Amino acid sequence: MKQEMLINVSQPEECRIAIMEDGVLEELYVERTSQDNLVGNIYKGRIVNIEPSIQAAFVDFGVGRNGFLHISDVEPQYYRQGGLDPDKAFDLVDSAGKAADAVPANGDDALRAQRVQRKPRLGDRPRVKPPIQDILRRGDEVLVQVIKEGFGTKGPTLSTYISIPGRYLVLMPPLGRVGISKKIDDERDRRVLRDIMLDLKPPKGVGFVVRTAGTERTKSEMARDMAYLLRLWKSIVKRMRKYSAPIDIYQESDMIIRTIRDMFTEDVGRILIDEPAAYERAKEFLELVMPKYAPRLQLYEGKEPLFHRYGLEEEIGRIHQRKVPLKGGGSIVIDQTEALVAIDVNSGSFRTEKSAEENAYQMNLIAAKEIARQLRLRDLGGVIVNDFIDMRKEKYRRGVEKALHDAMKRDRARTKILRTSPFGLIEMTRQRIRPSLRKSIFRDCPTCTGTGTVKTAESMAIEVMRTLHLSESRDDVTRLTVTVHDEVATWINNRKRREITQFEDRTHIQLHVVGKDGVSPEHLVFDAWDTSGRSIRFP
To answer: Where are the domains of the chain?
Structure first.
C-alpha cells in the first residue's frame, strides 16, 4: 500500500491536503484563511447566560459569538453544593501545572498505586450530574476548548474536558492517569505501551492517552512527545493565570502541521509541498517531532501545478457532483438536506453472469466502499441514510453491513452504523466537527435559495393575475406597473392579453407589464399610483 501526502498552498487564501493511496484520492482536507477555524483552540471564557430548560450555558470566549456548553461537557472540577466556588475554579488546572514540574517519589510504584487505589477522581464523570444551574452562575470563569464549529446561527460547541494532542500522546489534564487508545486492540501492544509509560514516570495529576500512532514507538520517541506536551501545558497554565476572561489561551496548529501530526504513518512514503515557506515550517516540525522521517518531506518545484500533475483537480471537481459513477456501470446519488444525508445506490448497467440477488450483492459491496470514501472526501456528518439495492438473503445483508463497517474503519470521525432496517436501509451517524466541504466552498443560489428549482413562467403569470384581482376591491389605484422577468412578461402579454384587457375595462386601471432582463425568474414587483399621481403601496 503506497501512500503520498500532497500539500497545495500555492494560493495564500487556501490550503489543500490530499492523501493518495495507490494513486487513488482517499482523503482531502481544505482550509481557507477567510474562515474561522476554532476547533481544538482553548479559551478562558465567562458564563453570560444559563438555560436550565436545555441544561446548557452560553460562554463569551472572545470571538464575537457565544459558545454552547452543555452539562455533559462540564468537567466535575466545577461541581460543589450550591454552585461554583470562583476561588477553586482552576484548582485542578493549577495542580496539573505544578505536577508538570514534579516527579513521583517512588517512580513506577507511585504510578501503580495511583491507578490501583481508584478513588473518585476529578476526571471521572459521575453517573448523575447535578443541574447546570447548581454548578455555574453568570460571571463565572471557565477554561473551555472548542470541539465543534458553529453552523449557521449556532455558536461553536465547547467542552471543559481539555485535551491537547501530540504526535504519539494526548495530554488530558483532568484524567490524572495513563490510558491507551481503544483503537489499539492488540493486547500485547497495549501491554508494551503501558510499560513504556510507567517507565517514563509521568507527573502525578496529569493524564496521558497513547494514540494509535504510538504503536511500536520507542521509549525515547514517547519521552520526547511527553516533554513537548508538558512544556506546552505549563505555558497554558501561566497564560491562564495571567489574563482575565475572555482570552485565547492556546491555538491549535495550522492545517499542515496538524495533518502531518495526525495522519502521517510509516505507510506514507513521501510528503510533497509546493510552497517554500510552508515546506520550511513542516521541515522544522518533522525534525523536532519525527527526525527519522524528515527525509520523506520534499519541496515540489515542477512547472505544472502539483494537483494538476497528479490529476487531482478533475477528481476534486467530481466530489461536488450529486451523482458518483461506480465501477461496472452502477452509481450512488448523494443528497444533503437540513436534517440528514440521503445516499441512494443504483445498479445502472452493472451486470454479472450470476443471479439478480448476486448482482445486487456485488453492486452493494462496491457502493459501500465508495460511500465511506465519499463521506470522508466531502466531510459529511450527522444522520446518514443509505438506500442499498434490495437483497432478500440475510447473509448478503450482513455482508454489506460488514463491508461498510470495514470501509469506515479508517475514518477519523466517530461513526455508528445500525443493522439493515426492514426497508433495506442502513442508517448511520458520523461525527460532525466542521461544516461539510460543500458548505465551505459553495453558497446557496440567490435565485432558488438552495432548493434547486424556480417557478415556471406560467406559474408566475398565474400569480401575477391572481394578485391583480386584489386591486378590484381598491378605489385608490388608477395606474399599475408590474415588473417581472422577460420570459414571464412575454407569457403574460401574449397569452393573458384578453384577461388584461378585461381587467382594465372592469377596473379602469392602466396596467403595464414590464419585462426585465438579469433578474430572478421569480422576480415580481408592483408599483401603484393614485389619482393625484402619488405612489401608494400595493398589494
So the answer is: 3-36+256-313, 45-250, 320-441, 457-536
